Amino acid sequence: MSEEAKKGYSADSIQALEGMEHVRMRPSMYIGDVGVRGLHHLVYEVVDNSIDEALAGHCDTISVSINEDNSITVKDNGRGIPVGLHKKEGVSALEVVMTKIGAGGKFDKDSYKVSGGLHGVGVSCVNALSDHLKATVFREGKVWEQEYERGKAVYPVKSTGETDKNGTEVTFVPDRSIFKQTTEYNYDTLASRMRELAYLNKGITITLTDKRHTDEKGEFLGEVFHSQEGLKEFIRFLDGARTPIIGHVISMEGEKNDIPVEVAMIYNDSYAENLHSYVNNINTHEGGTHLSGFRRGLTSTLKKYADNSGLLDKLKFEIAGDDFREGLTAIVSVKVAEPQFEGQTKTKLGNREVTSAVSQAVSEMLEDYLEENPSDAKTIIQKVILAAQARHAAKKAREMVQRKTVMSIGGLPGKLSDCSETDPAECEVFLVEGDSAGGTAKQGRDRNFQAILPLRGKILNVEKAMQHKVFENEEIRNIFTALGVTIGTEEDSKALNLTKLRYHKVVIMCDADVDGSHIATLILTFFFRYMKELIEQGYVYIAAPPLYLVKKGAKKQYAWNDDQRDVIMKEFGDGSKIQRYKGLGEMNAEQLWDTTMNPEYRTMRQVTIDSMSEADRVFSMLMGDEVPPRREFIEKNAVYANIDA
Ligand code: 0RA
Fold first, then answer.
1. Is the CB of 511 under 6 A from ligand 1?
2. Which of 102, 138, 223, 605 minimizes the number of CB atoms within 10 Å of its CB?
């Protein structure tokens, strides 16, 4: 804005205007990004306001609709945003909440604001990034309304009728000029967040309706999320595909040093550790002080119990912290008044005081459970001992992997066809199913920057294998050495070292059929369990080979789905022929390059993890024991279900 223009405004309104304009200028600073993730964040931000109203005890029902035009409506039955005059600003409080950055709820000092989107920026930020937004308030017998365009009020708050209800309704249309990639909402993404919120805030009913689609009966798609038992139920949902080894979900809910703490955990017969932590309803991917507190409480309590029980008497080696967490699924949720978030993605809790609060809570909870359930206690300790033994075996196997890395010529597996470029940022590696497709890919690639690592058939299902088996597996060792990734340090046996990562694009390339997607899922499961940061940092991609080649005379076009195929056939007219690619092997090197490997034409999907808990659940289901849900799921969704790419 020019100095000239500024003079027309009062100091305060300049600030407000600049705040909203700043959001539009630098949206990523407020909502993370302007891609799929940021688009969905808009919804979370609005819903969080309603959750706050519910946590303050004034609201129990929230409804979210994806409307036909991809606009979103969020409605709650809370007190309604106040509409009276805001003395300082000289306009309605509603207008202040909607158009001033950082104003949301602040004038209600009594309310204990605990939820809050990842960035906790408030609904005004959503308004700034919406082409159009309409707020409707039901309060004190009247309906009030105000509309905005790109964050600016179109008219002053007005009363449009009478009502016996109370609550707030917000409908917004995301601004296409900001969300250039897409403004289309994904039902599953919203559903998994609403489900998570319902578990994290028991008693609240959250309905999600997708008005873009109807079922056979003409009804909208949708779900109602409501949890009576909170985290306890969340654990059962997450671990549904695993087999528990103890009788109950162990859980507690209470306050420690004024910090509300909720914990739930169970042990299953797998070898995976699944810890999920939340602060003010935000998934803290990077953990932090609350998770340290959980680990500390768990380790000290189980250690003490095991020592006293005499079960460890014959053990020849030390039990490590890790050993107590094999086969453990746990959720820790705390509410912190002034959370300090640290880490690369600002999802690591820094508040020191939280560690001891959670540690104490966990100790008390576990002591009680072990006391009251001695046979479960014994089962847990025996599992811990087995984990310790396996860890020793795994350590040896891992040392072998690392020795190989250093010793073999060039440190690389023989099957890898490397590229000539050495700057990792420029390099890609394709993990290809089978030697024959590997051969085609090797011929088709641009060897300057594309490397090929063929994998033999089905790789190990790490979901069901003990750690040392994973590290002994040849294909998996090849992946580690080819990528230049090492695992395990003195302090942390699972710490990943990506500093020598050799490729910034790791592309899974499998056949576009059920077997291919199964193999892709196996590889993804391996990455998810053993190289999660590789996914989190955006290095993992899935190649998308075409399904069909449509030909007529000299005309040729590829199709990636049935709709595309039909459109092309129509275009080509009578006499067009279809070739269906059953596998990569049916394509020649040139075709593979043209369709799937050439950066100019290919469509690759970057693998991202939207919801850690949902990813964990899906992987355990896909790769676990129960075959029927897995088969059905794979056939319906291939690998893309919760992997939003
Ligand atoms: C501040 C004060 C009061 C309500 C709210 C904020 C409020 C905000 C939102 C956002 C979505 N739904 C909401 N519901 C309520 C009420 C103060 C009072 O009535 O005394």
1. no
2. 102
pLDDT tens column, 524-564: 999 999 999 999 999 999 999 998 999 999 999 999 889 99
Out of 472, 511, 614, 616, which one is annotated catalytic?
511
Q: Separation of 106 CA from ligand 1 center, angstroms?
A: 10
Q: What ranges make up the beta strands (E) of 13-111?
A: 61-66, 72-76, 85-86, 91-92
| Structure token pair of residue 60 | 């129990």
- CB of 602 within 8 A of CB of 454? no
Q: What would the DSSP string read from start to end of 123-179?
A: HHHHHHTEEEEEEEEEETTEEEEEEEETTEESS--EEEEE-S--EEEEEEEE-TTTS
When pLDDT is cut at 50, 70 and 90, the band that residue 402 belongs to is: low
Query: Nearest CA to 239 among 267, 205, 201, 197?
Result: 267
Q: Which atom of ligand 1 is nearest to the CA of 59?
A: 14
pLDDT digits (tens, 9 = 90+) for 417-432: 999 999 999 999 999 9
Nearest to 48 by CA among 59, 34, 37: 59
Residue 74 Cα: closest atom of ligand 1: 11
Beta bridge partners of 134: 147, 171
pTM value?
0.83
Ligand 1 contacts CB of residue 77 (under 6 A): no
- 433 is a catalytic site residue: yes
513 is known as an active-site residue: yes
Q: Could you tell me if the CB of 56 is within 6 A of ligand 1?
A: no
C-alpha–C-alpha distance, residues 441 and 430, integer Å: 8
Q: Is 273 exposed, middle or buried (0-12, 13-18, 19+ CB in 10 A)?
A: middle
79 lines ligand 1 (CB under 6 A): yes
> Residue 496: which pLDDT band, with cuts at 50, 70 and 90?
confident
Q: Tell me how far apart the alpha carbons of residues 201 and 211 are, in angstroms, rounded to a whole number.
A: 26
Active-site residue, 562 included: no
Q: Which of 42, 76, 79 to mutate to test the pocket of ligand 1 (most atoms within 8 A of CB)?
A: 79
Judge whether 142 and 96 are in contact, CB under 8 Å: no
Is 33 designated active site?
Answer: no
β 61-66/72-76 pair status: antiparallel
CA atoms within 13 A on the CB side of 304: 12
Ligand 1 mean position, distance from CA 144 (Å)? 14
C-alpha–C-alpha distance, residues 274 and 162, integer Å: 51
